[in-house]
From TrEMBL:
This is Stage V sporulation protein AE. Signal peptide: none annotated. It comes from Caldifermentibacillus hisashii. InterPro entries: Spore_V_AE, SpoVA. PANTHER family: STAGE V SPORULATION PROTEIN AC-RELATED, STAGE V SPORULATION PROTEIN AEB. Pfam families: SpoVAC_SpoVAEB (PF03862). The keyword Calcium does not apply. Keywords: Membrane, Transmembrane, Transmembrane helix. The keyword Transmembrane applies. The gene is spoVAE. It comes from the Bacteria. The chain crosses the membrane at residues 6-26, 33-50, 85-114.
């Protein structure tokens, strides 16, 4: 159990280090860094490497934004096998819709409960 926490911390930390290096060394904007991390997760899933990483690192690989790219590609590939070309489009939305819906709902509730400083 302790090893699981250790590897989740190490892998999650490596994602953070990569993101920080993209900010500091490559001088990328937050939007570019975010997009690059999502695309990296998508490419790793397309190559079949993200699933073993999630099995190994647990939350260290499922919490970072790269997991969103993994979810997009994973859903598209599953639905493409089941429904053909139309499954590529529907699969991305089917797998990620609960997370996106939750973010919208909680952001709305937060906006109702708290006053923004401007």
């Amino acid at each position: 159990m302790l090893a699981m926490f250790f590897w989740a911390f190490v892998v999650g930390g490596l994602f953070c280090v990569i993101g920080q290096l993209l900010f500091d060394v490559a001088k990328l904007t937050p939007g570019h860094t975010l997009s690059l991390m999502v695309v990296a997760g998508a490419v790793l899933d397309g190559l079949g490497l993200y699933e073993p990483l999630m099995d190994f690192a647990g939350a260290g690989a499922t919490v970072p934004i790269s997991s969103f790219g993994n979810s997009l590609v994973h859903g598209a590939m599953q639905e493409a096998q089941a429904h053909g070309i139309i499954g590529i489009i529907t699969g991305m939305f089917e797998v990620t819709s609960s997370g996106i819906s939750s973010a919208i709902i909680f952001a709305f509730i937060g906006a109702l409960l708290f006053k923004a400083k401007g």
